[in-house]
Amino acid sequence: MTEESSTRITMKELYIQVQKIQSMLEKLTAQLPSISDQLDELEEDVNIRLNDHETRLRRIEMRMWQGLGILSFLFAVVPLLLSLMP
């Protein structure tokens, strides 16, 4: 016959563990609103930075296309002006 090992857990030990779990849950519940507020602030900061970067990129792109337009105009007009000069 093989001997089976067993463990005995008393009601007192079970009660102590349940109390510890309840205490940890209460602490987590108390911390949850502050964590939620921190996450909201972080999300707002990220959105502000993202919008700022998008605005900067749009300005750079707009100026780049303006510069290309001016260069295109110059490349079209300068040969005409040079051909009119004696």
Q: Characterize the overall form.
A: rod-shaped
Number of helix segments? 1
Q: For the residues shown, what is the average pLDDT?
A: 90
Taking the alpha carbons of the first and last residues, their distance comes to 119 Å
Helical amount:
over 70%
Unreliable stretches: none
Number of separate strands? 0
Order of helices and strands: H
Largest sheet: none
Strand content: under 5%
Specify the structural class.
mainly alpha
Measured on Cα atoms, how large is the radius of gyration?
A: 36 Å
Describe the structure.
This protein has about 90 residues and is mainly alpha-helical. The chain has one helix spanning about 10-85.
